[in-house]
Specification:
By secondary structure, the protein is of the alpha/beta class. The protein folds into two domains: 3-122 and 300-333, Quinone Oxidoreductase, Chain A, domain 1 (Alpha-Beta Complex); 125-269, 3-Layer(aba) Sandwich (Rossmann fold), CATH 3.40.50.720. It has eleven helices and 15 strands. The protein has helices at residues 42-48, 56-60, 117-120, 123-135, 151-162, 175-178, 197-204, 223-226, 251-256, 282-294, 313-322, and strands at 3-10, 13-19, 29-38, 71-78, 90-93, 100-103, 109-110, 144-147, 168-171, 187-190, 210-215, 230-238, 261-264, 304-309, 329-333. Strands 3, 4, 5, 6, 7, 14 and 15 form a seven-stranded mixed beta sheet that branches. The protein has a six-stranded parallel beta sheet with strand order 10-9-8-11-12-13, with helices on both faces. A two-stranded antiparallel ribbon has the order 1-2.
Length: 335
């Protein structure tokens, strides 16, 4: 069998290699990949390898590297210690862009509802955003501002609105991204190139300003500006993984004096296990996401901008490096 695998061989260098079939251990499952989703934020940050020396991004960018963590596939073989009922099940997991991957039963999410693969493949990003919305402790009736309308930002706007936030502001300088927001009451799109963001938020919140701001641009230089729409004692959630340091940040004016809370919301902040105090693990969020798709409560199909054969991955990554502003959900097809 042909085991094609996307490999970052070096900075800004991508190839598709034919590799040996993975060896199945006694506690493993062999998964045949159906679709994967390129994370155009995380993966391009690693691929460009332009992060400050010694930063976490710099340590992650160790080449060669097999990228990817949004994988939908079907279990085709199991190790001797794994229940054979797994064979034939469709699963979602944090596995790379490869035709065949190894997974352990405890690491995957079973796709328990009849939903399109091309929507299920957004599960990782949905888990990240659901966790971020919860960490911001956003309550029904509060207002939220989302800076940056890439995939995470698009999902953040939708999930804040679903959670009862009113209004929800989506902010971006790309008209293409703004155009992808749902045309729904309670969602307000703002392009700061032609609209005064602070004035608009002030007017539409009756002067109260935003209860929670979600930073999803990944641009460290504009983060200080995002506090301008936040109410006193409001919360700013870092849902992105900023690319570099924010210079000249005034902790007195932007944290202490207005008593803002700055909250990190990396995917790893999910609890490892369900408890009575917090049951919202990655898997529970994945389960919720699949249910929302199946019940018609969220539709991510409009966020799919490209579908390409896995063999064309190098050209797709090159296009993204040249200009990713016209891309959103980029799906690699493996079957």
């Amino acid at each position: 069998m042909e085991n094609l695998t996307v490999v970052f061989t070096g900075p800004k260098q991508v190839t598709v290699e034919e590799r040996a079939m993975p060896v199945i251990g006694d506690n493993d499952m062999l998964v045949e990949t159906i679709l994967t989703l390129i994370s155009i934020g995380t993966e391009l940050t690693i691929l460009n390898a332009e992060s400050p020396k010694g930063s976490i991004w710099d340590r992650i960018a160790s080449f060669p590297l097999t990228p990817g963590y949004n994988n939908i596939g079907k279990v085709i073989e199991v190790g001797k210690n794994v229940d054979k009922s797994w064979i034939g099940r469709k699963v979602a997991g944090y596995m790379p862009h490869s035709s065949y991957v190894i997974a352990k039963p405890e690491s995957v999410r079973v796709i328990h509802r009849d939903i399109p693969d091309e929507q299920a493949v957004f599960f990782t990003l949905a888990e990240i955003v659901m966790n971020g919305v919860r960490r911001g402790e956003l309550s029904w009736g509060e207002s939220a501002v989302v800076y940056g309308l890439g995939l995470l930002g698009q999902l953040a706007v939708r999930l804040c609105h679903f959670a009862g936030a009113r209004p929800v502001f989506g902010i971006d300088i790309s008209e293409n991204r703004i155009g992808m927001l749902p045309k729904t009451k309670g969602i307000v799109a703002i392009n700061p190139k032609d609209t005064d963001v602070v004035k608009t938020v002030y007017q539409l919140t009756n002067g109260r300003m935003a209860d929670v701001v979600y930073e999803v641009t990944g641009n460290p230089d504009i983060i200080p500006q995002e506090f301008s729409v936040l109410k006193r004692q409001g919360k700013l959630v870092i849902l992105s993984s900023p690319r570099g340091t924010t210079k000249n940040f005034d902790f007195h004016d932007l944290c202490n004096s207005p008593s803002y809370s700055i909250i990190g919301a990396h995917n790893s902040s999910h609890p490892q296990y369900e408890t009575p105090y917090n049951q919202w693990t990655q898997k529970r969020h994945g389960e919720l996401f699949f249910n929302m798709i199946a019940d018609g409560e969220i539709d991510v199909k409009p966020l799919i901008s490209h579908r390409v054969n896995c063999k064309d991955a190098p050209q797709m990554y090159q296009m993204l490096m040249d200009d990713r502003t016209q891309a959103m959900g980029v799906i690699l097809e493996w079957k």
